[in-house]
Structure formats: C-alpha cells, structure tokens
Amino acid sequence: MPSKRGREHHARQAHNPVAGLTSDVIAKRTKRHLDELERSNYAEHSAQVGEEDEEGKYTKGRARQLISEKRTFNIPGVKKKKSTMNVRTALLYRKNFAALLEESNLTAFPSTVPTYLTAQAPTSTYPSRLLCSVCGYWGHYKCRRCALPFCDLNCESVHAETRCERRVL
Amino acid sequence: MVVVAFDNGGSTIKAGILGHPTAVDPRIVVNAVIRSKGDKATYVGHELDKCKDYSSLNYRLPVEKGYVVDWDAQKAIWDGVLSDEVLNVNPTESTLLMTEPYFNLPKIQQVYDQFIFEEYEFQAHFRSSPASLIPHGSLFGLPPPECMIIVDSGFSFTHVVPVMEGKVVWSAVKRLDVGGKLLTNQLKELVSFRQWNMMEETFIMNHVKETCCFVSQDFKKDIEICRENVKTNSIVQEYVLPDLTKSKAGRVRQPDDIALDTDQVLTMGNERFAVPEIIFRPDDIGLEQCGLAQAISASISLLPHDLQGMFWANIGLIGGNTKLTGFRDRLLSELQSLAPFGCDVVLYQSSDPTLDAYHSAIALASLPTFTSSVAVTRAEYLEYGSLAMRRKCPDWQPAPPPLREREPTTRDRDHGKESGRDRAPSGKDKKQDGTSLKRQESKGKGKAKAEQVETAPEPSRRTRVRAINPVGASSSGKRG
C-alpha cells in the first residue's frame, strides 16, 4: 500500500514532499499511539501473568489453568464445590472489551437512548496546540518526513536521529 | 447480617465491613495479579504487600477500559479479599454492596450477578455506579442537594455525571477517555525518551506521577519557566529512583539532601504539568475529545434549562486523579469562564477523593432497610434471574425490563437484549401476585415520585433510574 501511495503522490511532491504521508496515515499513527497508552504492560504480547507456570511452560486452550484455581484462599464458610456452568464459562473464555462492546450492539439503539458510545465527550472546539515531541516546549515546526512537531534545530536533529523514520508506516 | 461494601475500581478495590473498623478505614487492595520478575513470584491483589522488588512488575488487570473482562483474575482477587487474610467474611451469610462502572454492558452485568449469587452465594446484593451512591454520603454536606454533578476521574476514564433527585441522568453523562492509567503511560513514554527507560516500571512511575505531577494554572507561563533555564528553575524537581538494595521508596530530592553519586535521578521538568494537562486538553496527545471543563459544560447544557444554575453550583469531585495538586483550582477557573453569566460555580471535594464512593456506599448500607428491601436477595435472584437485579438496581439499562405480559416490542426482539430476560415470562405471572411494593417501584418515569410516598419510608433515590431515558417505543404501556 505505501508504494502505491508513493506512485500516486509522485506528481505532487512539490506540495507534499513526503511520499505516503496522508492524513489517514497520521490518524492511524495517532490511534496506534493512543492504544499503546491504554496498555497494562509494555510488552503486551509476552506471556500473561498467571497463565505461565513458574517453570515457564505456556499452556493454552481449554486445559489452561485458571489462576483462581491455582491460588486458592481460605474463605470462611465456603466449601470447595463445582461452579455453575455460567461461572465456568466466564472464567475460561475471556473476551476483551472491544469484543464485548461489539456484541452489545449498542449502535442498534435509536439515538435517543444514551449508551457507552453516545456518552463520549464531544470533540474540542479549540484548535489543538502542538508540543515539541522531543523536549515538550511549543512545537512550532513540523518534521518534513513524519509531521511530528519540534521546537528548534536542536530538537529537530535529535528527532531525526532517534525516532523519525520509525514513525512512518 | 454482615454487610460488605466493595468499591471495585480499575486500579484498587476499597473494601470493608459495616460496623467494623474497616467501615471507616477500608482495606485498599490493588486490583491486579502482579508478577515480579525480581522476586519470581506472582502476587494476587493484597499479596503485593509482601513484594520486595518493585521493579519491572508485570500487571494483569481484570479491568480493561473500566469494565471487568478478565473474570479469572477478578475472582482470584475477590477470593483474596474475602479470605481470612483480608476481610475474613463468609459470603453465604453476608450482603454485598458493590460498585460498577457507568454504562456497564448488560452482558457484563449478568456475569457479575452470576459470580455473586451462584459462585459466592451471597445472601443479598446491591450494585450501582459510584455517582448514584454519592447522594447518600456527605460530600456536599447534609442534606445533599437535589441537583448535583459528579466528576469521577479515576484510573480508567473520567465521567461527568449529573444526578438529579438521587438518580443519574444518563442522557447527559459524558465520558473522557483519560484516566490515571493513560497519564502514567504517557509519563513513562516521555521519561523513557528523554532520560531512563522506564517503560516496564509501572509501579515506580505511578509513584512519580503522584508525587511530582501537578496541574498547572497557567500552562503558557509554566512552559516558559521550564524553557528559560532547563536545569534550575522553580518547577524542575529531581526524583531519586528507589534503590532496591537499600530502601524501597523513591522520593523527591529536597534541598538539604546529600546527593550521592550512586543515585539514579529523574529530572522532572515540564513533564510535571504536561502530563496532567491531558485531562484538560486531551488534544495535546491527539485524542479528539474536549477537555474536562468543556465536557462539564456540554453535560449541563443537556439538562433542563431552569435547573442548570443549580447544577453549576453543586459540582463534586471524586476519584484518584482529583487528588493532583492544583486540579480543583484549575477546574474552577476554567469553569468560571464557561458558566453563564450570573451562575456561581462551586466545587466540592472531600479530604480523600478515592474513598468517597466507598464512604457513600457504607452510608447506604447503614440504612435499616438496606438488606430487607434495597438489596436483591438470593431467593429473588434464583427465581427471577438477572431480571431481579435489573429491577432494583439503578444501573444503566437500554430499556426498562418489561413488567407484565411481555408485549413483543420490535426493538426488544431485533436487538436481542439481555438473555437474562428469557426467564421473564415465568417471572411475570408470579410478579402480578407479588408484593405491591415491587410493582410500584418498577413504574416508569414521572409516576415514580408519587408512588414512593406510599412505599417504605425511605428516600426516593433508592428506586431505579428511569427518569430521563426517553426510550420511545417500548410501551409496555400498562403502567399503573
């Protein structure tokens, strides 16, 4: 995809010197950044806590051992018993929030019904202000290649050396 | 009957028992299963106190974006809190009061019910969002005002919740997807790029955020102060990272501290105020939502015009993020410029905003009628299923549960709502013979207030939220 964009934009290079940097590329990058900010751990794809034995074995699927079974506590009055079907299903089959949201089919409600989706705050009426991605001061200038803001030449050189190219998809 | 209150938050659970010292001073348990690479051990919730090595902790949070999705982890943590290591309470003989997030998804609500009644077998249960509980507490002083706005800024997100006569006005609730988690992660990124790599150090960076960060009253001025003299200005602070061999805690370097060469230091300059600024200007990081002040203004504008002045004058702040220094003053000044001419803006905040929801929950649980009529008993759940919970708890619901003979409204069918309803038909017939108390309670908007006078002598806020949910077509019309 980037190469196709590159060809399309070749003619317009005078105006947009960056090949492949359209606004949806930037939007995608921002979205990816925001998703990263929602992570619990930096290395998310590594084995999850509790699913991995201390020896390092990784078991998947139905035979997966539940942490709630592995680590039991002594609750007064509660005897060990077989959990109901509902509970066992909930314990074994974990869905992430996006899947649950999808399933709830909130978009099917008429617009008068308030839902999780409609409650989102409206977009800002003020223009956003750009801060230098290197030092945090006002970012009056934008990088030619990846459109991240920077404040002066020092920051520009730091940016170009460290995280410029990597940001472009 | 023992009553247990749980404020089940994204970052911590605040739990305690009514009538016990924990009612005033709850146990605060981190709501996560944490693995420490240093200790090579896994800690479930409260066990984190035993952890020696706070670096590179791997968190498994049952709550994702504010909602419980990982039930395995959540059950393990709840087991720990109920066990003899923390609260030592027998669920089969207790009532549970729990908080849940705003706009909790119906499927998730059902799973809560299943765990609480079928797994733990609590005798009775009541669940509601934190804002619904606040009118019972004393955040605004007593008696609480009729119209109030609760700003709940926690770990996962920030909500602006108008509460009128004890009921949440769902159509005017606004959500900002900025919470403590996002702020800590943003701080990690900034520091990792500019100084030491702290991407794995959630625990430490969280502490840095809580000690060093503040909300700037004038962003432009503060950013200039940090610019002129990067090393020495009135804002920059040095945070000494914890030394794991000697002491556990990290701290801010004081002027009279001896600077050791072996200290690893984080220089906190404009990060101190740029990070909390995200709550007031989410567009700083590209999140296309308005700031908190504008969200409050937008929320109030959706409320009845003649009451708006009352809402402006009763804004309460709860949740961990509101503890940031300068939060209240900054919000006040931004709101004053947005409020209509002649409207007073008054903010209320208690001495510990993280415990407000918990204290209000305890206040509700102390009501004499709590276990008998407010909470849903296990017997009711076993008979009517999740529907019993939906009737009595003021959670958000897309449409009120049908009372009687279920009229086939097209919406209900098409959107295949809560399957807990499939028990409804049998429940319904019994319902009609049921107590008049229940029937009167489940009436819809407008009539709610009149009926309450006849029912048990308790505040109107106890009945479910139905008021401003204009659910058009679902006309199980025979109300009354």
Strand order of the largest sheet of chain B: 3-2-1-9-10-20
Query: What does the average pLDDT of chain B come to?
Result: 80
End-to-end CA span of chain B:
34 Å
Highest-level CATH class of the largest domain in chain B: Alpha Beta
Helix-strand pattern of chain A = HHHHHEEHH
Output the strand order for the largest sheet of chain A. 1-2
**Low-confidence sequence ranges of chain A:** 9-17, 50-62
**Which bin fits the share of residues in helices of chain B?**
25-40%
Largest interface (CB within 8 Å) is between:
A-B, 70 and 99 residues
CATH T-level fold name of the largest domain in chain B: Nucleotidyltransferase, domain 5
Shape of chain B: globular
> Got a strand count of chain A?
2
The end-to-end distance of chain A, rounded to whole angstroms, is 10 Å
What is the count of DSSP helices of chain B, taking H or I runs of 4+ residues? Answer: 19
Class per helix and strand makeup of chain A: mainly alpha
